[in-house]
Design brief:
Blueprint (H helix, E strand, L loop, with lengths): L2 E7 L2 H11 L3 E13 L9 E10 L2 E11 L8 E7 L1 H9 L2 H4 L4 H10 L9 E17 L2 E12 L2 E10 L2 H15 L4 E2 L4 H7 L5
Antiparallel strand pairs: 1-8, 1-9, 2-3, 2-6, 3-4, 4-5, 6-7, 7-8
Length: about 210
């Protein structure tokens, strides 16, 4: 199972410094809008996150993905199920969450079967969300290429900065990332919470 390593940067200055250091390795950048769905009792929130992510191209949604993120049975990483979603339909679900329950979607059926969310008694609501700017880099090291994602996440409550990398070799990659940030002169700490937890809490968590 791949583990997602997340390192929190303290401020915009650290983000700019790391962006400049990684600039020669940049693959692409894109803007994301993340929307979360649950029922009124927030049944899912304790164990999972049902998310619609829209990827913007020149200010308009170019594609969308429906995802269920939840803790796996073993204590490592995050289990995810994803499927593509028509961008126009994704926006329609944000305006009218009941449309989500009507999708011909394995994820929606899984949420109904395992969590009991999305039926007539527990209809979906949109909790809101946040926007994210992501820069994707490829870093070569002795163990092969790594894909790094540098995020600037804008919540209503403030902005956070984070470097992420998915890997099946977390201990080796931690050393690579620590060395990278030390050479770049960028302060950091390992994230103890994720973006969804910050969104739910209404404040920037460490």
């Amino acid at each position: 199972m791949e583990v997602e390593i997340k390192l929190r940067l303290p401020d915009a200055a650290a983000h700019r410094r790391l962006s400049a250091h990684l600039a020669p390795r940049l693959l692409r950048t894109y803007a994301q809008r993340n929307l979360f769905f649950d029922d009124a009792a927030r049944t899912l929130a304790a164990a999972a996150a049902l998310r619609v992510r829209l990827y913007d191209d020149r200010g308009a949604p170019a594609r969308a993905v429906l995802a269920l993120k939840r803790r796996p049975l073993i204590d490592a990483g995050v289990s995810r199920v994803e499927e593509p979603l028509d961008p126009a339909l994704a926006l329609a679900c944000a305006d009218d969450p009941a449309r989500l329950a009507g999708l011909d979607s394995p994820i929606v059926r899984l949420v109904a079967a395992e969590y009991g969310v999305g039926g007539d008694a527990t209809p979906f609501i949109c909790l809101g969300g946040f926007r994210n700017s992501r820069a994707v880099y490829e870093l070569e090291d002795e163990g092969g290429g790594l894909v790094l994602e540098l995020d600037e996440t804008r919540f209503d409550l403030g902005t956070s900065y984070e470097l992420e990398c998915e890997t099946a070799e977390p201990e080796r990659v931690k050393e690579v990332l620590e060395r990278l940030l030390t050479v770049a002169g960028v302060p950091y700490e390992y994230s103890r919470t994720n973006k969804f937890a910050c969104f739910l809490a209404g404040k920037l968590l460490p």
